[in-house]
Amino acid sequence: MGNLYTALESRISDNARRVVETCVEELPEYQAVAVNTEDYAQMLDFAVFIRERTFDLVATDHPLTGEDLAVVAAIGEERGRIGMSQEVARRILALHAAATMREIHEASGPQDLDEAMHMLAWLGAQGVVAQEAYTLAFLQGQKHHLPIIGQARQFADMALAGDPAAAGYAREIGITTAARYQVIVLRAAGGEVPGKRSEEVLDFVWRHHHAPGTWHRADEFVALLPAGNQKAALDLVRDVAGSTGRSYAAGTADGPMSTLAETFAMARRVSHVARAQPMPDHLYTMPDVFIEIGVAELPEIDRWLRDLVGRLTAGADLLPTLDTYYRHDLNRTRTATVLNIHPRTLDYRLQRVHDLTGVNPHTAHGIRVLSTAMTRTHPWPR
Length: 382
Description:
Elements: H1 3-10, H2 12-26, H3 28-34, H4 37-60, H5 66-81, H6 86-107, H7 113-142, H8 148-160, H9 166-173, E1 180-188, H10 195-209, E2 213-217, E3 220-226, H11 230-244, E4 248-256, H12 260-273, H13 286-296, H14 299-312, H15 318-327, H16 332-339, H17 343-357, H18 364-377
Antiparallel strand pairs: 1-3, 1-4, 2-3
């Protein structure tokens, strides 16, 4: 055994106490449990145990045993059973991981590079195994007081965060996972959805669509559906809009279970440039709004487009006319019918758009510029 392992072993008690005290200081829920002397001692014993086993196994280059993982799982299940939140459980794991990295750094000298790298490699592989055992057991403990809607939400949160334990948890609660998921992000127009109503949405989406959902923010609902069924996805979106009486901007993206965090990030970006609708008739995807996303990240271009739209307010009917024209794929007859005007009146209005902006709405260039401007600045739901 090298100098690094010896140094770390000599500091096990002090380091274990320090990480427990850090958790107590930073996490009120953890502190509430630690008030009990017996519980505090259990936390300290576990911190000592995991360090002792880590150094023993790293020194002999062996993985965690089934018995080791059973101890980890027992702690996780107990914390879930007493009602500790999943957010706090994640923070505990993060604080333990950070503490371990700090301890290795503090104990390492210039001559300990090989041992430190070996230990970090072992922790990288076995840490994932231990965290998954802890998380799954924690969630098992939560099942004693968490209803199925809450469990489905937990799965959605885990999957969207890229938690490797998500698939295992899904099996535990009876959710059949899909190879690919469609992530649907609904951004509520007008601010947050009240707490009671948001809980009703979760319940409704699970019972009627069997889709795990979560509120990422108070104005942002996210649902997961197996990819490939656009009708089911649109039905879900319209049901949410209808049940809450709110307009939503709907963004979506699909990807494999293993990369849902990235898929979720893409769907969110889409929702932030999509237009809100009281009863959505289209789910926006990246191909629909990639220009708008690019523009949103370039403020000077965004201001230019807003100026263009500002010029169109000189005519009371120009903005809805242009919007309807593009939504009907430049079809004059259908556009005039929807607007209940003569086609010649439509032609006059579109010529007025050209005159005011200097952009011909019939050309490829005009379509790119004006449709992007409308999407970025359109003040009313479609």
